[in-house]
Fold each of these.
Amino acid sequence: MLPLTFPVLAAASSLVVAQAPAPGAAQADLARARELAGALRYEEAVVEYQRYLGHPDRPAAERAQALLELGFIHLLLEDTVNAEQRTTEALELDAWVRPPPNAPQKQKDLLERVRAMLAARPKLEVLSREDAGRPQRVRASLKDPRARASEVLLRHAPVPGGPYRATAMVCQQDTCEGELPVPPRAASFTAWYFVEALDSQGNTVARAANPLAPLQLSVIEQKAWYESPWVYAGGAALVVGAATVFFIASDPRK
């Protein structure tokens, strides 16, 4: 049986006072979601929170607070997976997000549990290049407090969108190195790549960039584009980063 004491409405009221109201339809959706939560109509509240989150132009702090509230509703509905997922999304949007002081202890416990999970999660970051003579060398920092990662792969492709091949990186302490393949007898080339850490079961536990938003390196006459005087800003490669995600790798070595 669901608990009958969930002061979302009171908590939401204090939040509405503390933050600028969302305009138009977004304001109505969020207000309706909080009203339903305050009336203990949790399943309907979930729908309205999701409707509000469908407005992409809302401020990050406001969205984070809504995600935090939605995560607690999922917890009350005994949906732990979605409770932790929504709370994770809230913290990724705003690391300082907090429930109001009068929030239930269960909500505070959920937030701290997820915060601890995020702190222990492996993190990958591509480092700046040190050797100008070998621009194809990729270096990455791996922070892995619980030693979950068993290998780190450099995934690369000669064209955007792949298919991506994998090269194992060599790791010493928290720094991993690998090299993008250079086409035979090619003084100039372009590669798209990202870095991925796998656990012993082949699951992805951390990424720097991803297949949909890879990093890009263009080498001209054996010099990286950012070192070549023949490349101007309009033709420079765009480097795009992305958040670390979790998913099950279908076949990490292809």
Note: The mean pLDDT is 80.
Amino acid sequence: MAQSEGTLRDAAGLEALISRAAAQGKGLPPVEKWNPDFCGDLDMEIKADGTWFYMGTPIGRAPLVRLFSTVLRRDADGKTYLVTPVEKVGIRVEDAPFLGVELNVSGEGGDQVMTFRTNVGDIVEANAGNPLRFVIDPANGGLKPYVLVRGRLEALLARPVMYELVSHGEDIVVGGKSMFAVRSGGTVFPIMPSGELEEQSL
């Protein structure tokens, strides 16, 4: 893929930049506040299963993947970037940038809370600010649940997590219509009309 002159030449250089950005403070870097120049695309891709590739090769170092994940940003143009105070490079994302790999459910009824862990260590409580959304995969008719992690970045829930989530579903009247839905953080998240559940390929 063609890259501009200013594009970082290798992942090691990018890692160094990110390390300096992350070292400025504790917690996640404030990527939403940064507005650096776009420097081209990097030959990096996040596959649907959460595996990161650089120049066609899987990135096997989990700490490096976690580091990269802290400076991900999805902009209003629908594209995903790695962003530092001085560099903004585009990467490819096959589905969602994160994968939800674990679910913890606490409380019951209106007090129920669903908390997810992603493949890169994010902990996310599903609520009005971090909603769940559900789509039907046009390829196979299967259910694909997502949870908003931060900004515009979502995690696709792994199939075992999806099955566990669905096991907590119940029929709830939403807008005068009976929906199969789940509750979390004081919010009801409709999955599908109750009558369609038996027809659905999970």
Note: Confidence is low (pLDDT under 50) at residues 1-9.
